[in-house]
Amino acid sequence: MPKLTVLESVPARAMAVCAHPDDAEIGAGATLAKWADAGCAVTLVVCTDGGAGSASPDAQHQTVAQTRLREQQAAANILGVRDVVTLGLPDGGLSDTPEFRGEIVRLIRQYRPETMLTHDPHVTRTFLHRDHRVVGTVVQDAIYPFARDWLHYPEQLTGGVTPHKVNDLLLWDAEEPDSIVDISGFVGLQAAALAEHRSQLEGLASLTEGRNLHEWLINRSAGVGHEHPFDYGETFRQMVASG
Fold first, then answer.
1. Domains of the chain by range and CATH?
2. Which of 142, 107, 104, 115 is nearest to 35 (CA)?
3. For residues 155, 160, 161 and 167, what is the CA-based torsion angle, rounded to 10 degrees?
4. What would the pLDDT profile of 53-66 be if each residue is shown by its tens digit?
């Protein structure tokens, strides 16, 4: 992997938008923990209820959803996330609609993040969950131009709410990342947060190839950090907002 641009500055406000509970911990958990520890106000937006996240034929959607959202709050507490927003949309049912986009625009205008993080929707070398692809696309569109411009979703602009320009977007799970965050000292928090998603540990075992979460995260982050002057890194594809 070529040497990447090291992202050293910590935004005052950041927002991570993910499709399902546990996605943000896997994709950017250590970065969120590091930024929160440095005083960044981190908002986590979970778009679906996670209710399809079970391999059991006896599972009930509502029960799974309730469990997963409890797990998400516990994980967010470990990372130091200030606010968790759950949209409660159906797991596996996300679509790129004006209504969904408007929800993300509304949250951007409310929380006013400088930096946002989400799924990279442009994955071609492996299968990508449709919800992940939709969220990545919707977040990009919400940032530019919809949250920024006065004439998009003007009904939101009441009570002192104004348009907001996000500075940049970091896409996790990018096939060709160009940026990296030094997460040395924060992989343990990431592993602890991910472990709170107890209902998903059996499914995560296939991702981690049987290793425990901390070992897997250490190996993954060491593999990208060794070309840089720190031990562990989390990589992203960075998009700088236009206009």
1. 10-240 (3.40.50.10320)
2. 115
3. 150
4. 777 777 778 888 99
Q: Which residues contact 58 (CB under 8 A, 6 or more apart)?
A: none
For 148, 154, 220, 241, the CA distances from 109, given in Å and listed in that order, are 8, 11, 34, 15
117-139 in b/e form (b: 16+ CB < 10 A) is bbbbbebeeeebbebbbbbbbbb
Question: What is the pLDDT confidence band of residue 6, given thresholds at 50, 70 and 90?
Answer: very high
Single-letter amino acid code for the residue at 50: G
Point out which residues pair with 43 in neighbouring strands: 15, 83
Structure tokens at 35: 């930024």
167, 170, 205 from 163: Cα distances, Å: 13, 21, 42
Instruction: Tell me how far apart the alpha carbons of residues 118 and 27 are, in angstroms, rounded to a whole number.
Output: 8
- pLDDT (tens digit per residue) in 181-206: 999 999 999 999 999 999 998 888 77
Please, are residues 181 and 233 in contact by the beta-carbon 8 Å criterion? Answer: yes
